[in-house]
Specification:
heterodimer; A: mainly beta; seven-stranded mixed beta sheet; four-stranded antiparallel beta sheet; B: mainly beta; 11 strands; globular
C-alpha cells in the first residue's frame, strides 16, 4: 500500500526549531517529487515547499531562509527543518507526493500538528 | 504569485442536487489545475488533475472542466458522502496556490 507518514510535530516557542519527518512506503520514493503543505486551523491548505527527484528545492516566500526541505532516498524519507518558528507557522503539516510528470498531489500523509506559542 | 479565487465560499444542497463550484486564476494557467475534497480532520483527497482528468476510483459524478483562467467542478448528483470542503490548486508555476475553499453542507 502506498503510504506517507509524518512525525515530529509538537509545541514550540516562537524562535524555536522543529524537524518534521515523512516516511514513504509502497512506492519508489527516489523517483518522485515530494512536497510539504500546511493548513492552519479553519484555513485553506497552503503549499510550503517542494523537492525534486534530483534535489532542486522551492519554497513559499514566508518560509524562505527559515525552512529547509531535504530528502534521504536511502531511507525513503522526506524532511522539513523549521527554524525561527513564528506563531503564524502554527498548522497541520502534510507531506504529499506529486503525480509524475503532472504535478498536483495524489498521495498525502495524515499530517502532524505544529503549534508555535508562548 | 497566481491567485486562485473560488466561489461560492459555501453552499447548501440536498442529496441528488447538481452542484457547481468555480475557481478563477488571476492569470492563465492552461490546464494546470487540480480539485481536492477534504473532510474534517482528514488530509485533502485529490479528485481531478489537469483540470478534467478524474483520478482512478473517484466516482464519475465528479467532473472538471475549464482552461486558461476559469475552471469548474461539477457534482452531477450529490451523495451523502460528498458533503465536504472542496479546494482547487494550481500547479502552473511556483508558488503553488490553493483556492479559499467551498464548503458543501446539507440543506
Amino acid at each position: 500500500e502506498v503510504q506517507l507518514l509524518e512525525s515530529g510535530g509538537g509545541l514550540e516557542q516562537p524562535g524555536g526549531s522543529l524537524r518534521l519527518t515523512c516516511v514513504a512506503s509502497g512506492f519508489s520514493f527516489k523517483n518522485y517529487v515530494m512536497n510539504w503543505v500546511r493548513q492552519a486551523p479553519g484555513k485553506a491548505p497552503e503549499w510550503v515547499s517542494t523537492i525534486s527527484e534530483t534535489g532542486s528545492t522551492y519554497y513559499t516566500d514566508s518560509v524562505k531562509g527559515r525552512f529547509t526541505i531535504s530528502r534521504d532516498n536511502s531511507r525513503n524519507t522526506l524532511f522539513l527543518q523549521m527554524n525561527g518558528l513564528r506563531v503564524d507557522d502554527t498548522a497541520v503539516y502534510y507531506c504529499a507526493r506529486d503525480i509524475p510528470g503532472i504535478g498536483n498531489f495524489d498521495i498525502w500523509g495524515p499530517g502532524t500538528m505544529v503549534t508555535v506559542s508562548t | 504569485a497566481i491567485q486562485m479565487t473560488q466561489s461560492p465560499s459555501s453552499l447548501s444542497a440536498s442529496v441528488g442536487d447538481r452542484v457547481t463550484i468555480s475557481c478563477r486564476a488571476s492569470q492563465a494557467i492552461s490546464n494546470y489545475l487540480g480539485w481536492f475534497q477534504q473532510k474534517p480532520g482528514k488530509a485533502p483527497k485529490i479528485l481531478i488533475y489537469a483540470a478534467s482528468t478524474l483520478i482512478s476510483g473517484v466516482p464519475s459524478r465528479f467532473n472538471g472542466s475549464g482552461s486558461g483562467t476559469d475552471f469548474t467542478l461539477t457534482i452531477s448528483s450529490l451523495q451523502p458522502e460528498d458533503f465536504a470542503t472542496y479546494y482547487c490548486l494550481h500547479d502552473y508555476n511556483f508558488p503553488l496556490t490553493f483556492g479559499g475553499g467551498t464548503k458543501v453542507d446539507i440543506k
